[in-house]
Please model this.
Amino acid sequence: MKKTGAQILCESLIKEGVEVIFGILGGSVLPIYDTFPQYPQLRHILVRHEQGAAHAADGYARAIHKAGVCIATSGPGATNLVTGIACAYMDSAPMVAITGQVARPVIGKDAFQETDITGITIPITKHNYLVTDVTELARTVKEAFHIAQTGRPGPVLIDVPRDVQQEQTEFIYPDRLDLPGYKVFSRGHPSQIKKAAALINEAEQPVIIAGRGIIISQAYDEFREFAEKAQIPVAHTLLGLSCFPGDHILDLGMMGMHGTGCANMAVQNTDLLIAIGMRFDDRATATTKEFAPNGRVIHIDIDPAEIGKNVPVDVPVVGDIKSVLTALNEEVERREHVDWLSQIEQWRCEYPSQDIRQSDELLPQYIIRQICEATQGDALMVTGVGQNQMFVARYFTFTKPDSLISAGGLGPMGFELPAAMGVKIGRPEEAVWCVAGDGGFQMTIQELATITQENIAVKIAIMNNGYLGMVRQWQELFYGRRYVDTKLWNPDFVRIAEAYEIPGVRVKRREEVIPAIQKATEHPGAFLIDFLIEPEENIYPIVPPGECLARFFEPSRTETWKQKSGVSITEF
Amino acid sequence: MTDTRHTLVALVEDKPGVLNRIASLFRRRSFNIESLAVGGSERPGFSRMTIVAIGDSAQVEQIRKQLEKLINVVKVSAITEGDMVTRELALIKVKATASTRSEIMQIVSIFRANIVDVAPSSVTVEVTGDEDKVNSLLGLLRDFGVKEVSRTGRIALTRGSNS
Model:
């Protein structure tokens, strides 16, 4: 029996195990939506903006380690997905984005709502397709899911013209793939693993940089065994947080521009860096010119193109982290590193970056720590971008594997709310906290409607300082405290939430924090807390742009910093 | 590390948009292309592309690996100068009068090039060879007045039986 392109698409999605689709309809996807009632096993979440669909699919994908699916119509629908696709691409999240396209006869004629979305998304997808023949559709879907979910994951876009959705053919789902140019390096080369182990066994001051690759590979146990066996301290990239217990004696917290003093000092003074599933992002390394000057580098990653891209590497190991670490654990020797670990403890005392300063004001650090304590570290934390993200990264102690969902690479404000929806739908049994800034929250605020319509029980904590906080901090430190266009007039977020039938409270004082978190936790559905925080609180330490990791600045070290650099922070 | 010319030979699937993907990659990563030539290969459905890129050796290795990541790219080799046969084809339209035509024909014959079109005031020369040969001929013909030039860019294969 012949089936339409729309039916073939739905049945192919079901073959790939898809259960949830995030999207919003329009003219060029009407045939697809028209077939949805035939496939009740596909749950469609109706978002209010396509960017929300893409971020939600991304959050969902990160939560369940399978491709998230989003769908949008041609033209503006497709272009609205772009931010979310670019975000998934930068952070290696598996996604299949489906877009409607105008009918084949009018492609290239500048038809209504026509956009060359495959052309637009070439640089931000792992691969993309324009399906011009309905007989190619099933194979395309199979390839798309394979490419999105294997190797280094990433987004794949399938553009389907409206008339292809209506055209009929036999549905045959291929069981084999023919991708002659697609290579996945799953197992590390044994001789490279031996070379890496030899360097690790002779190192005196080794440091691990743990990246998101460990989480993608779900190699928590193998990684912990590795760090513990060789007694190597662990610094994290932002997205590497929650791959290793944050309360572990070997854990240094996050490194980088806003990293802990201890992590940054350890990286800069190491004799061997073991970089695992990370890509030497500039926010993690600061200037690469003076990065870890005496450290040899072992780089373990599944993507060969990451080797040597930003930092020269002594021993590359290309492969899946879990398989490489399993092999490496056989080769590395038990070590103590007593002197090195005592030096690390000294730095931990010298730079107590985790301490919260004494203040009567409502500090975001305090709030994050209270959320951590109230949830006993068991919540999934979804963040926005900016100060709120850094406060979570630094003051939430991640003890539960795979519990941070944050947009690291692209840094799109507005990620938090739709991503949290996706995370909650993917892992409904777990508590999901969405930590937003007041700026970013208003970039995707319309998804409150989706949350209510679909009954998605996320807890929203707004760090409301009345500023675009991170930018304001830069203006304060590097632009002579000239706050150009960072001050925000905000609506009453509790009343906004109320209009969306989401209960909420406003918190102005310290003593109200714990009861508010309690209330949010006890409420069965979505809940919003508007925390009116100290408006000019900064995230410290900060490594000023162009500086190396060791030259971080925090108020308590101002004098030392001036001595070392000879300039005051405001002179940048 | 110094910038030099590097030749990359890629076997790619002959599908719509492949050239766009490759050009987009070069632009996005700020790699410089000096020339790019594409045509059929020994495998039906696959094309061979020769790219001359400028950069230091680390950059070229990065280009090669980024190209390899493209789904439609099957294999990329960075070939060193001594290990390859390279050719380029050029068409050169030269001003020619009754008095200069025979001199042009002599030069063309020394270069084992061909005259492929003759008009009252010009001749069109077809030359095949490596870039040096094409450049030398072009240099000599400039004295007569070159009206138009079209060059294909380098195509290359490795020497011997290696593939």
